[in-house]
Structure formats: C-alpha cells, structure tokens
Design goal:
Elements: H1 4-130, H2 133-158, H3 161-178, H4 184-199, H5 205-217, H6 245-263, H7 279-301, H8 305-322, H9 328-341, H10 353-370
Length: 376
C-alpha cells in the first residue's frame, strides 16, 4: 500500500505537472495570440505605410513629371510668345523705319517745295518792289484804253449814251490822275468826245415803248363816226304844266327842240365823211389800228425810223378818217401821235474813236521811249 501511494503520488505529480504544463501551454497560447495579432496589425500597418509611401512616391513622381511637362510646355509657350513678340517688334520696327524713311522723304520733298515757294515768293516780291512808277502808269494807261474801247462798243452796239458817257468820264479821270503834260492832246480829244455824247439826243426807248402800248390799249375807247348804238330815251315822268297857254306852248317848243337836237347833229369836218361801217368793219378797223401801233413798237426797238414814222402816220390818218374828232379821247390820241412823230428814234451817234486813237498812239510812243536800246 505504501508502494501504491508513491506511485499514485507520482502519478498525481505527473498529472499535476501535465496539467500545469497544459495550463502553461494554454496560458502561453493565450499570451501568444495578442502578440501575433499585434504583429499582424503592425505588419499590415507597415504594409499600408509602405503602400502609402509608394503611392505618395508614385504621386510625387507623377507630379514631378507633370510639373516637368508643364514647365516644359510653359517654357515652349513662353519661347513661342517671346519669338512672336520679338517678330512683331521687329516687324513694327521695320515698318516704323520704313515710315520714318517715307516721312523723311516727304519732309525733304516738302522742304524742297517750301524752299522753291519761298524762292519764288522772294522773286515775286523783288519784282513787285522793283516795279517803278512807269510800269504802274502803263497799267493805268491800259485801263483808260480799255474804258474807251468799252464806251465805243456800248455806244455803237447798244446806243447806251449814259453808260458810254460814264466810261468816258472815268477814262478822263484816270488820265487826270497821271498828270502828264504830254497827255494834253489825248485829254483834249476825250473832252470833245464827252461833249459830243452829252449833246447827242438821248432817246428814252423804254418810255416811248410804253407810250405806244398805252395808245394801243386806248383804241377800244375811241368813238367811231356815226351812232354805233341807237339809244332811245323814254321820259320818266310827264308832269303837268301849269300856267297860261303861252307857258304850255313854250314848254312844248323846248321839248321839240331837244328831240330835234338828238335826231339831227351838224358838225364841221376837215376830211371827207365816210359811210357808216358795219360791226365787222368796226372790229377790223380797230384791229388794223392796233396793228399799226405794234409795228411802230417793233420799229422803235429795231431803230427803223422810216417804218416807225410810216406806222404812226397811218394810225393818225385812220383816226382822222373814221373816228369822232371832237371826242376827248380822239383829241388826246392825236396829240400823243404828234408828239411821238417828232421823236428821232435813230439819232446820229457821235464819233468817239479819235480819243481812243490818240491814246493808242501815245502808249506806243511811250513804250518806244522807255524801252532800252539793245547794247552791241
């Protein structure tokens, strides 16, 4: 029994040892699991950190590559922009140089033109300053000669006495201002021409034309010989005559005389009495008279004195032959015709060419005196 107890005790010791080993093993296993877990977590963290570092490194590599590409593009773009700007600047500089050259050429041309104009102006000013009194007097003499020629044309072509006289007086005033003693013969001829123009009969053509037009318009108011219309007067009232039979007889006799005076008119005429005209003949007569006045007006404008006098003479004969000579309108028309017949519509024009010839001769002699003789 004593032997069985040690064996049992050994068995129990061995079992206790095994159980303690088992417990230790379990305890060790339990202690190893958090370590492994921590190790795994650490390794995972390290792996994540490595992956993160690798990713960051890759991102940095990509960023660096992108930056390098971007910087390269920026440099290329900057170089292109700079080259374009330089090209534009160079082009603008070339254009500016060309423009400056053109402006310089234009300025030089303008300067040359201004110099030429200044030179010409100086020459003109020198010539004007060198003009002496003789040349200025030549201009005045030429002006006087022009006025004389213009006066001659006005007088011959238009018969304008007033304008011709004014031109002659202006020419004489110019010769007077020159104050040359050798101009005396020229001024003498000019004075004779002025006196001749003033003494010439000046015809008022416009006024004469209007007088003829007034006569033509008054032809309808002239009274023809004989009654043109028969007027029968009826007494408005027949008052009773009071008094004795002698008064009634006297009043009746007065009425008879008044009636006879209206029916029978005795007039003394210096021309033969023409038979009474019909209405058509009266119209034809008045139209014929107006036609004579129109012919006289045309002859007045054309300075045809024979036609003018013939038309007015025929008009006077028609009025004396067919119209009442005692009528006031007829008397006024005949008086106006006598006044118009006395007018000279084509007066003799004075000769004013002698003064012009004398002035021409004087100018030629003056030029011969002032022109220097050619030196041998």
């Amino acid at each position: 029994m004593s032997e069985d107890k040690p064996v049992a005790q050994n068995t129990m010791d061995s079992d206790s040892k095994k159980s303690s080993k088992t417990a230790k093993a379990k305890t060790a296993k339990q202690r190893r699991w958090p370590g492994w877990l921590a190790l795994i977590i650490s390794l995972a963290a390290i792996a994540l950190a490595g992956a993160s570092a690798w990713w960051q490194w890759q991102a940095r590599l990509q960023d660096n590559t992108l930056k390098q590409d971007t910087s390269a593009q920026l440099q290329s773009l900057q170089q292109n922009v700079q080259s374009q700007i330089q090209n534009q600047i160079q082009s603008q500089q070339r254009d500016q140089q060309q423009n400056q050259q053109k402006l310089g050429a234009q300025n030089q041309l303008f300067a040359q033109q201004l110099a030429a104009i200044a030179k010409q102006s100086a020459n003109n000013l020198r010539r004007i300053n060198n003009v002496d009194n003789a040349e200025r007097d030549d201009w005045k003499l030429a002006e006087a000669d022009y006025l004389l020629r213009l006066a001659h044309q006005r007088l011959l072509l238009g018969g304008e006495f007033k304008s011709a006289l004014a031109l002659l007086v202006s020419a004489d005033r110019i010769l007077y201002e020159l104050d040359y003693a050798d101009l005396f013969p020229v001024r003498e001829e000019l004075a004779n021409n002025i006196a001749a123009v003033r003494a010439a009969a000046v015809l008022d053509t416009e006024g004469t034309f209007l007088r003829l037009s007034a006569l033509a318009s008054q032809t309808d108011q002239l009274v023809l010989v004989g009654p043109e219309t028969l007027l029968i007067e009826t007494p408005t009232s027949n008052p009773a005559i009071e008094g004795s039979w002698q008064n009634r007889l006297q009043a009746g006799w007065e009425k008879i005389k008044q009636l006879l005076s209206k029916l029978l008119v005795i007039k003394a005429r210096k021309v033969d009495v023409e038979p009474l005209l019909s209405s058509d003949q009266r119209l034809h007569l008045r139209a014929r008279l107006q036609l004579r006045f129109e012919q006289a007006k045309t002859a007045l404008l054309l300075k045809q004195a024979p036609v003018y006098k013939l038309s007015l003479t025929e008009s006077r004969q028609l009025i004396e032959r067919y119209f009442e000579l005692d009528d006031q309108a007829t008397v006024a028309a005949l008086k106006e015709l006598d006044s118009l017949l006395l007018l000279d519509i084509d007066p003799e024009l004075p000769n004013i060419s002698r003064a012009q010839g004398s002035l021409h001769e004087y100018i030629q002699n003056r030029h011969q005196r002032l022109t220097p003789e050619p030196q041998p």
